[in-house]
Write a sequence for this structure.
């Protein structure tokens, strides 16, 4: 098996032989495990069933002392949770030396990656099916259930398999939202976290500036009504057409490549300096990975309300909650050590919203504003200098816990 070698994907120096062997087309097609295996990393697939019947896939890069890049002995477990419309592949697609999972593995950590219900790798349930005309029961969830069921089941499984009592948690975007849900609704899970690293943290969204989500919030209730009538329960699943479109329209020689860049920028914020356009076909071969439409609509509710609270049933809140308005998530119950990584050009995690979140959690490590003024919401995953601007700081903080 190939060694854990340094690899160039985003403008970093690497041996010419490694570059010559890199096949973008193959990386578009390979799944998370295939990508890890291709680049010489040990990889495992695990399954866990949630209390409400969803069967989730967990992907693992176990500690392997054969790596010349690892620093001696094995370090603790790290659990990575992706954002909205994403999957474990987001931590992997940029390749060795750039993707966060590789950097953690090279540093000696036992790395596990979650996959939320409904994405490419977690489309099974003990009773319900994700496809067909009568699939509404499968898709009847939002990120509240990801935090209430998916994360606890995954964390318990990882701790049982590894024999550890606690783990590090790093989440991006919705991966942070679900963490706030878990630690407020099931506060006993705070004690299972060594430290939590929130990349582009999302709780409050009243000040976000993304045109896409602003439009979504304006049309929130009519859109919810329309989607329910039409039976549209899933949003942007990964499929062959999406993969082919990404490959044809977004490759380096395509005249339409700038359109692919602008779609990402209009959602997340403009930062052409940190986007390696060559990687767009690979990114779009894996993302979007599918989500429940309710996950987007719940965020739209947060934008309109300026609050961080459970799903708003409007006319039937009294029946569901015993109150006219949805319960707020009590962020004071988040007692695990938390570090917030944010940026001035993030159109989804606005500074005012991050500040409000920071003021309410009980045990903050600190707020860490990105030094690059144009750093956007997706740069935490795919920026050319993500290691330098984010990951190295996370690794440094891990050594303290």
């Amino acid at each position: 098996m190939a060694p854990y070698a340094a690899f160039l994907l985003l403008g970093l120096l690497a041996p010419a032989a490694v570059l010559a062997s890199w096949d973008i087309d193959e990386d578009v097609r390979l799944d998370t495990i295939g990508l890890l295996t291709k680049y010489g990393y040990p990889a495992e697939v695990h399954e866990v069933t949630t209390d409400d019947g969803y069967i989730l896939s967990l992907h693992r890069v176990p500690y392997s002392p054969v790596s010349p890049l690892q620093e001696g002995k094995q370090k603790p477990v790290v659990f990575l949770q992706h954002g909205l419309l994403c999957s474990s592949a987001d931590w992997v697609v940029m390749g060795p030396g750039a993707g966060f999972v590789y950097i953690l593995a090279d540093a000696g950590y036992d790395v596990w990656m979650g996959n939320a219900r409904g994405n490419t790798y977690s489309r099974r349930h003990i009773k319900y099916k994700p496809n067909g005309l009568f699939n509404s029961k499968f898709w009847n969830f939002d990120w509240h259930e990801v935090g209430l069921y998916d994360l606890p089941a995954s964390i318990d499984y990882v701790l049982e398999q590894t024999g550890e009592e606690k783990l590090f948690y790093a989440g991006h975007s919705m991966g942070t939202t679900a963490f706030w849900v878990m630690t407020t609704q099931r506060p006993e899970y705070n004690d299972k976290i060594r430290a939590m690293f929130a990349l582009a943290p999302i709780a409050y969204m009243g000040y976000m500036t993304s045109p896409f989500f602003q439009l979504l919030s304006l049309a929130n209730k009519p859109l919810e009504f329309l989607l329910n009538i039409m039976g549209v329960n899933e949003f942007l699943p990964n499929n062959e057409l999406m993969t082919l479109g990404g490959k044809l329209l977004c490759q380096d020689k395509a005249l339409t490549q700038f359109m692919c860049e602008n779609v990402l920028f209009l959602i997340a914020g403009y930062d052409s300096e940190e986007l390696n356009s060559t990687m767009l076909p690979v990114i779009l071969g894996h993302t979007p990975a599918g989500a429940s439409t309710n996950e987007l609509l719940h965020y739209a509710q947060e934008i309109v309300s300026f609050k961080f609270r459970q799903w708003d049933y409007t006319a039937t809140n009294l029946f569901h909650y015993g109150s006219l308005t949805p319960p707020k998530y009590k962020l004071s119950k988040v007692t695990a050590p938390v570090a917030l990584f944010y940026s001035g050009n993030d159109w989804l995690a606005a500074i005012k919203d991050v500040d409000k979140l920071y003021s309410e959690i009980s045990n903050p490590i600190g707020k860490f504003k990105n030094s690059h003024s144009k750093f956007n919401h997706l740069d935490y995953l795919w920026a050319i200098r993500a290691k330098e601007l984010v990951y190295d700081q996370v690794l440094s903080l891990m050594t303290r816990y």
The longest helix spans residues 143-162. The CA atoms of residues 343 and 370 lie 5 Å apart. Confidence is low (pLDDT under 50) at residues 1-22.
